Amino acid sequence: MKICVLNLSGNVGKSTLAVHLLAAFAPGSKIISVESINASNVNDVEALDVEELSASRFKEIFREIMFNDEVIVDVGASNVAAFMTEMTRFKSAVGEFDLVLVPTVPADKQQRDTIATIDWLHKLGIDGKKVRVLFNQYATASLEPVELVYAQVAGYGATDGKGKAVFEPFAVVMLNEVYELAKSSKKTIMELAQDSTDWKAARGDAKRAGDLVAMERAMAAQMTHDLAATAHENLSQVHGMLFPAAAASAKARRA
Ligand SMILES: Nc1ncnc2c1ncn2[C@@H]1O[C@H](COP(=O)(O)OP(=O)(O)O)[C@@H](O)[C@H]1O
Ligand SMILES: [Mg+2]
To answer: Which residues surround the ion ligand 2 when the cut-off is CB under 5 Å?
Structure first.
């Protein structure tokens, strides 16, 4: 799979989702982080293969996309305009992608930029079936349905945006502080969720030893693990929606 994560706006979760939703589920994938040098934060996860390239080196980016079978391109906000300009010069580049993922969040500006991004992709001539909108940072406690929380994007999907992207069934990634907590761990959410350390036992040991620091660490780790498990369940469900074939074969392997 060759996947591009794109949005004219920053802070919609492009890098987060490139790592925790895409790369974590496709071991061996190469991540191309299109950012000005050292601006990216995706290379913090130990297990991942990340290459940072600025959009001004588009030929190298294009070459990587053609060369690798499993590639995830995360276009940073600082480089998105230049990246888009290059995509209009190298007209076949966009056709290399099996999927362009456009994350959005509830903030007004980000929703407007999401719509502009989809319009731009449409003008570039990409097949709307390959463009998928991801509704990120949905607050679990929100009593409002997705259609209302992301009213602009959902409304656009039902009108002008129809056929330009896949909006439904809504792929929703919940707001979860573990994405922030994961950064210092250098691990993916999947790794954190699958960590089998018995933190309760570790806490007991620390308590008996009178080691307050170790006790604090065990308590924090137990909470992080819980949040990661919740996030991982959500990510698995969304991943299954985006890639039904991969989900079916994983299920068959487990059976
Ligand atoms: N579902 C989520 N829940 C909570 N925080 C999130 C979520 N998705 C992203 N974030 C946080 O939002 C911020 C922006 O995400 P990032 O992936 O860096 O966006 P982008 O790459 O689009 O600029 C980061 O601090 C990240 O940890
Ligand atoms: Mg980013």
So the answer is: 14-15, 76
